[in-house]
Specification:
By secondary structure, the chain is of the alpha/beta class. Helix content is about 45%, strand content about 20%. Strand 17, helix 14 and strand 18 form a beta-alpha-beta unit. The N and C termini lie far apart (about 95 Å).
């Protein structure tokens, strides 16, 4: 019995100790939860205060203002449905996001606004982060502003090619005496990853129609250099885009084409003195001396004897449409980003979500015409077809005009081709009428690099194809049948939508990318112009005259969950930027390309005028 009592006492002690440990753990967990909750709450308070503190109040536009454009605001193609748009989560600073619609509306309003005396283009190295077609649209809008008789002057310490292209539209261009000008022409460089995949024992297998020799989005994963077809199309593309830029500069600055070619080839205008000698700029000045320029132009000073400047972002927040507001509407619908399956919001174009938006616009009796703004490299063939169908239904009831942004290629062109008319800038990238599928075989990499092997069972010979063994001839043939079917559908839709013989479509298809300048000649678009031009075409086709209002079909942020999800994505992107630096663009492009599922119509190139 003593031994039994001792055993019983020991068990009781153990139970007591276990209960005490449990209570300690519970209390510690409860404390951690409470502290964590307060910490998260405090973090959100700091975050919200940081956002609120970084946001400026609505600026007042004083009389005798000069509209200052420096491209410091983030210029985007479509309004963001991101509740934290423009936020840097590491600094809590908010950068204003301006859409092309905001900018065009602001410049249009400024031309007749008695408070605005003129435009000051203060550019620096700005222009390189803005898309080529975006620059073209902004430049054209500033040129229209000049017709009002108000002045436009430009100044920079150094000009990038994009910055100078924009500045050249001004009445006068100035540069800092010790600055410089980058003027060397355009180059297109492509990074290839096949060698890396080989080292990792990864194999990319590509499925594309034999006629799609120009469909080069897959080349970085299967080749070590550009194919002859891709080299040919990209050479013609950069030549076309450079011709657009150089012709515009020649016309604005009174330089003949032969002289322009020589100056560019021999790098003869890199120094400020050279730029002045050859007519690229009108003077070498320090920025404080620009006040004398404004005085000479007749600009008036404010009551404090200083010139008043208002930023494009502040002015755009107050600019309104100068037309009378009628009940009839032209609605702008945005397809901005890669095309993906399903529903969602953010930077991608979700097929079912955009289709639902188009249905809502179709059912809205106030909407008399629609402008579909396409700024997309394409993506999912299935999602593109879902969108295509809704555009067909919409077109049967109301005029549909497509306005192309920096690129509307592959799937982006697929959803554009049924429109009543297509308007694009000369430097828009479009076409790429082609399709491909890509399969990345990973078992060898898992085995050889990580020691991981795969095994399994299956009910039929091709079940789970490609998961643990290479594709068989039967499986490859099945994939190719799907690829060929999508290509046949794509080319048929283009022939019907553009009223072209199928033989002609096949000649200009094959996955080839075209500039907007060339696309007009071959029938892929109907005219040059940006969003403003497309709205005018839509109003004309609907017979609206000048009595209509322009609205945007924008999906608002949805709830606290969207806020949290947006913050998480922005924090991840901020850390990626800090680690990858200049490689961020390449990383995103590879990530996007390898994430494409099924059969895709995708053309990732977006050339920047740098």
């Amino acid at each position: 019995m003593p031994r039994a009592r001792a055993a019983l006492a020991t068990n009781n002690e153990i139970n007591t100790i276990g209960i005490m440990n449990f209570i300690k753990m519970f209390l510690a967990g409860l404390l951690a939860f409470v502290v964590g909750t307060f910490a998260v709450f405090f973090l959100w308070i700091v975050l919200l205060l940081g956002i609120a503190g970084s946001m400026e109040r609505t600026a007042v536009v004083p009389d005798k203002s000069i509209l200052k454009i420096d491209l410091s605001e983030a210029i985007v193609d479509s309004p963001s449905s991101d509740p934290l748009g423009g936020l840097d989560p590491l600094t809590f600073r908010v950068t204003k996001e301006l859409t092309m619609f905001d900018i065009l509306r602001a410049l249009d309003a400024a031309a007749t606004d008695d408070r605005i005396q003129g435009i000051y283009l203060r550019l620096g190295m700005g222009g390189g982060s803005v898309g080529s077609a975006q620059l073209e649209e902004i430049r054209a809008a500033i040129d229209e502003f000049r017709a009002s008789g108000k002045f436009v002057v430009a100044y920079a310490e150094t000009y990038s090619q994009g910055g100078y292209y924009l500045a050249s539209v001004a009445d006068a261009v100035y540069i800092q005496p010790e600055g410089g000008l980058d003027w060397s022409g355009f180059a297109f460089n492509l990074m290839f990853y096949k060698g890396l995949l080989d080292k990792l024992d990864l194999k990319a297998e590509v499925f594309r129609p034999t006629v799609c020799t120009y469909k080069s989005a897959v080349e970085p994963y299967i080749l070590t250099k550009m194919s002859d077809a891709n080299r040919r199309q990209m050479q013609e593309l950069v030549d076309s885009m450079w011709e657009t830029v150089s012709e515009a500069v020649c016309a604005s600055r009174g330089i003949d084409a032969a002289t322009m070619k020589r100056l560019t080839d021999d790098l003869e205008v890199t120094l400020p003195e050279e730029a002045l000698e050859h007519g690229f700029v009108d003077g070498l000045l320090y920025e404080d001396q620009m006040e004398d320029v404004f005085d000479e132009l007749g600009a008036e000073r404010g009551s404090d004897d200083e010139f008043a400047f208002v930023s494009l972002g502040d002015y755009a927040g107050q600019a309104t449409d100068n037309r009378s507001f009628g009940a009839d509407r032209v609605t702008v619908v945005y397809a901005d980003g890669g095309i993906v399956d399903g529903e969602g919001s953010g930077k991608d174009v979700y097929g079912n979500t955009l289709a639902a938006t188009l249905r809502d616009v179709r059912d809205d009796e106030r909407v008399k015409a629609v402008v579909l703004r396409v700024n997309s490299p394409g993506g999912s063939a299935l999602a593109s077809d879902v969108i295509w169908r809704e555009i067909q239904l919409l077109k049967a009831e109301k005029p549909v005009i497509v306005s192309m942004g920096d690129y509307a290629a592959s799937g982006g062109y697929y959803i554009s081709c049924p429109a009543d008319a297509i308007v694009a800038d000369r430097m828009t990238l479009t076409g790429s009428i082609g399709v491909f599928g890509m399969y990345l075989y990973t078992p060898d990499a898992l085995k050889n690099k990580l020691g991981i092997t795969l095994d399994g069972v299956k009910s039929n010979r091709s079940a789970g194809m490609g998961a643990i063994a290479p594709l068989t001839a039967v499986e490859r043939a099945a994939i190719m049948r799907g690829v060929d079917k999508v290509y046949d559908t794509f080319t048929t839709y283009v022939a019907e939508g553009r009223n072209l013989p199928i033989e002609r479509v096949l000649e200009i298809a094959g996955g080839r990318v075209w500039s907007g300048a060339d696309a007009l000649e071959i029938g892929l678009i109907d005219g040059y112009g940006g969003l403003k031009a497309a709205i005018a075409v839509a109003a004309d086709k609907a017979g609206l005259g000048d009595d209509f209002r322009v609205t945007e079909a924008v999906e608002p942020p949805s709830g606290f969950a969207a806020f949290v999800a947006s913050l998480n994505m922005r924090i991840a992107a901020a850390f990626e930027r800090s680690e990858l630096g200049t490689m961020m663009g390449e990383y995103r492009q590879v990530k996007e390309a390898l994430s494409q599922q099924g059969i895709v119509m995708y053309e990732p190139r977006r050339l920047l005028v740098e």
